[in-house]
Amino acid sequence: MTIVLAELDQQTQQRVAETRQRVSDLHAELPRNQLVVWTAGNVSERVPGAELFVIKPSGVSYDELAPESMVVCTLDGNKIDDGTPAKLQPSSDTAAHAYVYREMPEVGGVVHTHSTYATAWAARGEEIPCVLTMMGDEFGGPIPVGPFAIIGDDSIGRGIVETLKGSRSRAVLMQNHGPFTIGKDARDAVKAAVMCEEVARTVHIACQLGTPIPIEQGHIDSLYNRYQNVYGQH
Description:
Blueprint: H1 10-27, H2 29-32, E1 42-46, E2 52-55, E3 71-74, H3 94-103, E4 109-112, H4 116-124, H5 133-139, E5 145-146, H6 155-164, E6 171-174, E7 178-183, H7 186-209, H8 217-229
Parallel strand pairs: 5-6
Antiparallel strand pairs: 1-2, 1-4, 2-3, 4-7, 6-7
Helix pairs in contact: 3-6, 4-7, 5-7, 5-8
Organism: Luteococcus japonicus
Domain Class II aldolase/adducin N-terminal: 21-204
InterPro entries: Aldolase_class_II_sugar_metab, Aldolase_II/adducin_N, Aldolase_II/adducin_N_sf
């Protein structure tokens, strides 16, 4: 039975509308930070208090995105009757996002990009070593590589969860594909995607110049704890 958005309670409808606005706005950050080209990449966010999430429609230009064109799906990855045209289908990565939400309830946002440097590491099937304090801060260690998987079902989602469960990293480089990032909400996941590309680029350049110096695990732990629990405004 298809869920009809207009038939849900007013509080849920309001939360869906707010989530659509946030997801639409955050998609602008991907081209702004040079993380995507053409229509590649996507942002999704879990709807607070509901078994739903919002994601970008497939193959639609970033310039044409608007809150009302964001697609609403169940945690099984099925589009609900959300007021968009029936022909407007969710991202081809929807099954992967849905699997992450089902298996990692702490995750509120998921982002996928094909950012150049992070994807280059993924093409080599090589993790990004933790040789920058920024990496210790943000990712708590290296950015790992996930298994090769084909788009179309939840195989990519399974690889993401398999790689990130038990890891402090909020980014994974899916082999031969590109980076996926997670966060407490979509904004947090977008930040992780921006930082993932930044460290991928910097470490790549460092490798061209010589051999990067690893950071000791004790220092990584200290950096991560400070950044996650002390840094910024609370």
